[in-house]
Design goal:
Layout: E1 2-5, E2 11-15, E3 18-22, E4 42-47, E5 54-58, E6 61-66, E7 71-74, E8 86-93, E9 99-103
Antiparallel strand pairs: 1-2, 2-3, 4-5, 5-6, 6-7, 8-9
């Protein structure tokens, strides 16, 4: 299981069945294909320091969640199979805020 605490206090959990963020008030939100998040596996979770969007490397590519819109979108710059598969917990944010997600093809 992965976990990432967002700057607003929400706790994001990445599981083998998708991610489940836990709001700081203790409520759970389960994301799936019916509400815009089709991936079954979450490998890495990072928060963008500027936008506060949550970025996830998944079995279906890279997705991001916009808290202001309460919406998931697939990253437009990501092309399918460009990195092979992502590695679990292979996500890192540099001191400059760059987000890196590791995959089998070295991406």
């Amino acid at each position: 299981m992965l976990l990432q605490e967002a700057s607003n206090g929400d706790l994001w959990l990445g599981t083998l069945g998708g991610g489940k963020p836990v709001k700081k008030d203790g409520t759970y939100l389960n994301f799936n294909s019916s509400n815009g998040f089709p991936p079954k596996l979450v490998f890495g979770i990072l928060e963008d320091s500027g936008s506060k969007n949550i970025w996830l490397s998944t079995s279906e590519g890279i997705y991001y969640y916009e808290p202001s819109k309460q919406k998931f979108s697939k990253a437009r710059f990501y092309s399918d199979n460009s990195c092979g598969s992502f590695y679990i917990r292979s996500a890192y944010k540099t001191s400059k805020g760059e987000m890196l997600f590791g995959g089998t093809n070295g991406s």
